[in-house]
Design a protein that fits this description.
Length: 219
């Protein structure tokens, strides 16, 4: 059963320990209500990824890149012009379910540390507006979902089957999740069955999360 967020007062938080890795894969079913190009967020690791080492984020409603979504990370070890690694990409339609997934791999060349990005199991074209030489590991911290830690950047929409792995999933693995777990149908593949050895977080957004302690903020 999916979880719907009102874009005002409710959000989820979940702790994740990614401190032993500089690679990750994120995926989630998303039905976004409307795009406003106001930096409302899908998720952010740490209270503000721009000011905390080991953070990363995804903004379907990017203000800097109007009409696009963005995903990336920020490293405090570098000057501002070299601190951010990220991509921007075309957004799918609002009001419908779409499977979002992206990879961050800091072992890759500077300009390619974020991506590929997948929508509905297919790799999509991305632009690389920023690059960084950062290779540091991620943090052990909290993932803030559909709202920043301070209550800003609140987002409206529905989510299902949000997952984070501490490694890079292949395109075939991501495609199998997208094809096998469509909301409203009987799931044949879920994140629990793909690379369980590296699964750091799974939130089905049913009555309770599996395998982690999550907190609901708001109604």
């Amino acid at each position: 059963m999916a979880r719907t967020f009102n874009g005002i007062s409710d959000a989820y938080t979940a702790p994740i320990d990614l401190s032993a890795t500089n690679k990750l894969t994120f995926c989630c079913w998303v039905a976004w209500t409307t795009f406003s190009d106001n930096d409302s967020l899908l998720c952010e690791f740490t209270s503000n990824y721009l000011f905390n080492d080991g953070g990363w984020a995804c903004f379907p409603d990017s203000a800097a890149y109007a009409g696009h979504a963005s995903a990336g990370f920020h490293s405090q070890a570098y000057p501002e012009e070299n601190a951010y690694g990220g991509v921007r990409f075309a957004r799918p339609s609002t009001g419908d379910w779409h499977h979002w997934a992206f990879v961050i791999d800091k072992t890759q060349p500077d300009v390619q540390k974020v991506g590929p990005v997948y929508i509905d199991g297919l790799s999509v074209p991305v632009d690389y507006p920023n690059s960084t030489p950062a290779t540091d590991n991620f943090a052990s911290d909290t993932l803030y979902i559909m709202q920043r830690q301070d209550g800003s950047r609140a987002s409206a929409g529905s989510l299902q089957d949000l997952a984070v792995w501490s490694d890079v999933l292949t395109s075939d693995q991501i495609s199998s999740i997208a094809a096998g777990s469509v909301p409203g149908t009987m799931a044949t593949v879920t994140p629990l069955s793909v690379r369980p050895d590296a699964l750091a977080l799974y939130l089905p957004f049913s009555e309770a999360a599996i395998g982690i302690t999550a907190s609901l903020v708001g109604p």
